Amino acid sequence: MRSILLRMFALPAYLLCAFVFAAPSVGPTSGQSPASSARAGGVPHEGCPLEVTLKTDRNSYKSGDGITVQVLLTNRSKSPLYIYGLLDWGESASLSIWLRDVASGKDLPQRLWGAPPSPPPASREGFVRLDPGYVYGEVFREKLADLGVQKKGEYEIVAEYHSPIPSSMNFGLPIWSREKGAVPSNRVTIKVVD
Question: Does this model's pTM top 0.70?
Fold first, then answer.
């Protein structure tokens, strides 16, 4: 009986907490850019204990193709680091991705996609332990047209990791929290041909 009651109230509680914690960071998608997030937690990205690496499945695409992107999080520190285990795409989740037209220097318009706000962890088991040098990641697949690519040319892609979990929900673990800021990935250039 107790587990049934817990399950009945778990989802509304998760949603309430997610909205409370996500509300201060909600804003227009165009208002945030990866260039404005070049620092993580007040320290330069290069010295950050968390490294974000973006990889594409190839360097050249036709305009109607889909693209597969891997985003890998690596612990570059000398001690364990804990990452929220639920990696989802979107401003209210953990990962974001942007494309920029190299010729014009302009970001491509984004449509609003991605997961709803991530539910907060219920226990320590909601986090993944990254020992020094360990990698944890996510794969993203999408049509180039759905990412705003409408013509041939060169496009720069960058991803960003931003924890949706505040430090107050660390369960005594050294987590990468929302307060530590966003960490941008390396930039990858792809070519789109007819």
Answer: yes
Beta bridge partners of 143: 66
One digit per residue, the tens of pLDDT, for the chain of length 194 reads 333 333 333 333 333 333 333 333 332 222 233 333 333 333 335 578 999 999 999 999 998 899 999 999 999 999 999 999 999 888 788 999 989 999 999 998 866 555 677 788 999 999 999 999 999 999 989 999 888 898 999 999 999 999 999 999 999 999 999 999 999 999 999 999 97
Which residues in 5-78 belong to E strands, given as ranges? 39-40, 43-44, 50-56, 60-62, 66-75
CA distance 99 to 190: 10
Phi, psi of 119 (to 5 degrees): -70, 145
Domains in the chain: boundaries: 2-25+44-193
Q: Coil, helix or strand for 7? A: helix
Determine the Cα–Cα distance for residues 18 and 177; give it in Å rounded to an integer: 14
Separation CA 37–CA 103 (nearest Å): 22
Domain made up of 2-25+44-193: CATH architecture: Sandwich (2.60)
Residue 65: is it exposed, middle or buried by C-beta count within 10 angstroms (0-12/13-18/19+)?
A: middle
The contacts found for 38-42 with CB under 8 angstroms, 24 or more apart, are 38/184, 39/181, 40/180, 40/181, 40/182, 40/183, 41/179, 41/180, 41/181, 42/181
